[in-house]
UniProtKB/TrEMBL annotation:
Gene Ontology terms: biological process: DNA-templated transcription
One annotated GO molecular function: DNA binding
Protein name, per record: DNA-directed RNA polymerase I subunit rpa49
Organism expressing this protein natively: Ceratopteris richardii
Main location: nucleus
Keyword terms of this UniProt record: DNA-directed RNA polymerase, Nucleus, Transcription
Family from the record: Belongs to the eukaryotic RPA49/POLR1E RNA polymerase subunit family.
Transmembrane segments: none
Protein's UniProt keywords contain Lipid biosynthesis: no
A GO CC annotation given for this chain: DNA-directed RNA polymerase complex
Domain of life: Eukaryota
Amino acid sequence: MEENHRHSRKKKKRNRLDVSLEFVPPKEGHTGPFVGYFPSGFDPMHFKQELSQSEPTEMSDLKVLAYQNTEKYKTRQHQLVVNSPDGGTVDFVGTNYLGEGALWQPGNYALGIFDKDSQTLQLLPVSGTKVFRMEPRVRGLGYDVEALATLTNVEMSKDSMIQKRNLLTATFGTHKSRMMQNRYERGRVKEDDLGDKEEMGKFFQKAGEKISVLTMHEALQQANSSLKRNIPPHDVTASTHEKAYIFDEIITVEEQNCLDDIELLKSAIGNKVKINELREQRAYPEFVLQRLHTMKHLQDEQKNKGIVILSYLKHLLAFYRLPRHLINSIVDPMGSQAKLSGSNSIDLTRYANIPDAVAGKILKLFTTVSEDMTSESEARTQTDEKRDLLINYILVLGLMVDNYRADPYDLGVELKKTISQLRPYYLELGCKFKSVKEADRGVAEPKTSLQRLYEITLPLPLRFPTLKNKKRRV
């Protein structure tokens, strides 16, 4: 039954037509063709058939009018108007710049017109901006078209444009573009942060009237005079080395009195046996032991001062060699005892044999303290600035014990730095590098050793590095 039912269907006869295809490309200056659709249900073709059956009159024609904005010709704003016949009060208006037409129209269409008599098929391209939604408009009523036009043509503010750009960068941008965006946002000054614009304008106007513009030379002088140097206490106007870097401020009297190895070092001056015993015990750095050999020719006053410096240098170098993770756990021995009860805390006096007064000053000068409110304890850190200050203290004391003619190689070994790495520190202290002749070096292998290759001196008055304006290449 199913097979008979399938065979019983009759196929519709279709006549083949020989049709010639003609493609009409778009031309410049031609606005048409337009495509309009009526969501209200109005059928212009049906209305046209009714008009063709009746007697034609002047008022019964279905008129289609197309307008283009001549002021904004490049925008190609069009308006299509279909007038209702028989003197009706309702027209149909469609635009491509308001409402639905204002949206993005990515689609392109083709209008096909088939003429059976001539058996031709014409294809006309129609872009998305030429498809109109025909809305009914009653004559005599105002539809506030200008207000709608302003809504669609509202320019975005600068903040909204930046916000949209940031959103696109955060969504689709590369890592480098996101980093640049964050850097730009941190440096951008917003208008809300400036407060009232008029008041800020008055403020800058008054400031400009009172303050004169500095030249480049004056600005550099002012910057150099206000520069705070990260070096020990000093006097720029001093005429002697003893007053240039003040000894009693670098090592206070209280610290000098608490040094407990002064007599031991005095007994080791010029005594090779005693010095070798200290070297085997590894109680003192090699820099200190070498100076004990050369101090036997000094006067008593210079010996006493040199011994104090060597003892103090021992403690500074011991603190310098501490790992940074241990510095975080060091507590101030001169502080409250409640903060010493932690199991991870380190007492610098017991750990490195540094006296209390010296340890307290070292922690005050060369570390920073941040209090933890939850555990009521102190957390110590050593920044790069504090570490540079510690190195400058060590270099200044090394200059003093060498009578301000020092070899940078010796302290470079103790600090584990090359001479080129120590050069900026010496220049910051106002020192001057001087090359030593090969005949005056007094080293067994002068060609291979870096010892006595340079000599550090301290010219007076002190002259520190200054900011300079780089000359532009022509």
